[in-house]
Amino acid sequence: MADNNLQLSDKVLTWPNALSALRLLLVPVFFWMILIDQNLLAFSLLAISSFTDWLDGYLARKLNQMTRLGQLLDPAADRLFILASLLGLAITDKVPWWLVVVIVGRDVLLFFTLPILAKVAYGPLPVNYSGKAGTFALLYAFPLMLLPAVLPSEWSIAIYPLAWGFAFWGIWMYWWAGGIYLRQVYNIRKTARLTSSILISKKESN
Questions:
Q1: pLDDT per residue of the chain (206 residues) written in tens, 0 to 9
Q2: What pTM was computed for the model?
Q3: Which of 30, 73, 122, 140 might form a disulfide with 20, Cβ 3.0–4.6 angstroms?
Q4: Topology of 15-205 in CATH?
């Protein structure tokens, strides 16, 4: 939701933040609907989440309500919906477990960059467009994977290839974005070390 070219505010109570909070609250409900095979309700909740994901970004720009909290809530809601979708679909044998490993593995890898950023007083990196595109593709893939469970079987012939097309596109963009994040972390760490060396040299010369 955040745009690096716009000023971020410290407001908490905004419409975009409320929508992101709603999406977070829907995650456990969605997960439970998958586990008890209420696939139509799960599909509906995922569709609502995708719509509110677009709406909170639109409202943030339209109402000039880009906030630091929103910058954290929006990607957190996306990742939790992806995780809930993956686990629910894998537990109910709708997707293979290797898909969970491939997608969650990227987030686990990036999690270990947070202490590195913290050492140089740097917070979580903002979402880049490649990551948003990957998330967009995955959030289209999962509802499509749910649809065959609520539609006539002949629809599966058309729906499954489309669902997996979105899934593989999402995986590619998700990991591409991960590579961009890792490169940014490397550059931030390198710059911090260089700055620290320069400051130490100046102190010693004085």
A1: 444 445 666 777 888 888 888 889 999 999 999 999 898 899 888 888 888 888 887 887 887 877 777 778 888 888 898 899 999 999 999 899 999 999 999 999 998 998 888 888 787 777 788 888 998 899 889 888 888 877 777 777 888 899 999 999 999 999 999 999 999 999 998 888 887 777 666 666 66
A2: 0.79
A3: 73
A4: Four Helix Bundle (Hemerythrin (Met), subunit A) (1.20.120)
Amino acid at 73: L
